[in-house]
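Example S7 (structure tokens).
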């Protein structure tokens, strides 16, 4: 498939990615990169070099983004970088949700994000850091750490709300 067709196909895909605004999943995905390759037989698109992918309020920055398709639908995205970053506005009036890791996997049909290796997820003053973080976007459930963590710990920061002046 020619690059222009591949980019056109990529813009038509809709992904129900993380945390957020219902309208995000209805928006086209725009991917800018230095290079792009589409393997039609394997149904894999690979974008490299200063990759920026956006869909509504979602933004992914990385060195490489690999998009896995099945029958024309996105089943998985893997972003890598030093680190690869993710952000999205969860709802109107809320603070942006941010995440980063050296490897980030996104499973739109499962409403699941995985941040791996030097991973952190934060919103406002609340932050979770671990080698592995999963976020179930449908149930707003965050899991940090792994059973076989080899002594690696999860670090959490939750700042108290400031007291209101009376």
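Recovered sequence:
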């Amino acid at each position: 498939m020619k690059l222009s067709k591949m980019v056109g196909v990529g813009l038509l895909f809709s992904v129900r990615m993380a945390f957020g605004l219902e309208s995000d999943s209805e928006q086209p995905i725009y991917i800018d990169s230095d290079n792009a390759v589409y393997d039609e037989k394997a149904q894999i698109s690979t974008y490299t070099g200063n990759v920026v992918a956006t869909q509504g309020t979602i933004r992914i920055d990385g060195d490489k983004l690999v998009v896995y398709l099945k029958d024309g639908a996105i089943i998985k995205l893997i972003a890598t970088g030093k680190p690869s970053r993710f952000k999205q506005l969860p709802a109107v009036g809320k603070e942006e949700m941010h995440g980063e890791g050296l490897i980030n996997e996104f499973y739109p049909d499962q409403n699941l994000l995985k941040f791996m290796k030097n991973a952190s997820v934060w919103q406002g003053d609340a932050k979770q850091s671990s080698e592995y973080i999963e976020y179930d976007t449908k149930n707003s459930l965050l899991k940090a750490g792994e059973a076989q963590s080899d002594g690696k710990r999860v670090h959490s920061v939750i700042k108290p709300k400031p007291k209101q002046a009376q």
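Notes on this example. The radius of gyration is 17 Å.
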